[in-house]
């Protein structure tokens, strides 16, 4: 049973490790395509926080955010394969932080197709 568990951990972690490797190889000087995709979503998030809480957040540079995502996925995936609770925690931390930002269904009207698609993807990731 230990071998089957190990194979399952390797297969699960391979999704995160491959994603971390791809983001690392495309990082470049500007953070790569991941930074370009996340920048508008972070701008909307900071605008929402500013309007709801009345707290002015400083501008967020995407390069450190993408580096943190790469580190969380890479290190978390490797430690998950080794059956470490720290790896579990790192992957959960990554998912809890990035999922609501990437799948920002709450910024669309409930009848729009974007809302439905993002809401479905958000709920699939959470499970």
TrEMBL record:
Keywords linked to the UniProt accession: Signal
Signal peptide: 1-22
Stretches that traverse the bilayer: none
Pfam families recorded: HR_lesion
Keyword Nucleotidyltransferase set for record: no
Domain of life: Eukaryota
Keyword Nucleus: no
UniProt name for this protein: HR-like lesion-inducing protein-like protein
């Amino acid at each position: 049973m230990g071998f089957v568990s190990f194979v399952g951990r390797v297969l699960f972690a391979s999704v995160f490790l491959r994603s971390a490797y791809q983001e690392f190889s495309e990082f470049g000087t500007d953070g790569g395509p991941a930074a370009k995709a996340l920048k508008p979503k972070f701008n909307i998030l900071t605008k929402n926080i500013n309007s709801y809480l009345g707290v002015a957040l400083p501008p967020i540079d995407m390069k450190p955010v993408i580096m943190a995502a790469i580190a969380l996925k890479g290190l978390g995936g490797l430690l998950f394969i080794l059956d470490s609770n720290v790896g579990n925690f790192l992957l959960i931390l990554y998912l809890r932080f990035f999922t609501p930002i990437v799948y920002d269904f709450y910024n669309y009207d409930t009848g729009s197709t974007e809302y439905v698609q993002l809401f479905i993807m958000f709920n699939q990731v959470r499970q």
